[in-house]
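Reply to dn_fold:

You asked what the input looked like. This is it:
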Amino acid sequence: MRGTRALVAVVAALALAAGVAPAAGAASAPPTPPSGGATSVPSTPKGSARPGPTTKALPSRPVPAKSGTGRRIVYDETVPQHVWVIDGSGRVVRDFPVSGRTDWPRPGTYRVFSKSPASSSQQYLVTFKWMIRFAHGRAASIGFHDIPRYRGGALVHPVSGLGQALGKGGCPHLTTADAQWLYRWAGIGTKVVVVRS
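and this is what came back:
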């Protein structure tokens, strides 16, 4: 029995290291309003995930100036729109193009307050996966998620459109792979810095 538990622990650790461990279920915490300036966060990882395999040097674009310090997600609303995922030592562990709006949410520092592996919008009649909520919009929460799909399964915009301001409600759209990876990396309380460079 002891040997079986040890084997299970080793397999679980290897799966987590390979990035194939199952995602945690929906989680939430009280929302944190944006603050005017950047604040530091402890470098202890929350919901850590290892960066995926890559053949390109990170980052593919420089991190914007005045985008905070510490472990954080930096979202630049200026076209071409982009996200940088930065660990506690200040190293970019992943970056990728996203598509949202250029005017919402407002620049500032936010915190992840809720996550759901699957969600939908009744207003736009779409579904999406890997929702990471960090701000409050006019009618609903704003968060990172994969490109929404209409009820029939078609994407609301092509993957090739990422980087352009294509969002309607305010949520930044990511590829499914990037959204799933970010979902695993960002825990409740993770800092999100929105900038317009």
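The longest strand covers residues 126-136.
Hope that clears it up.
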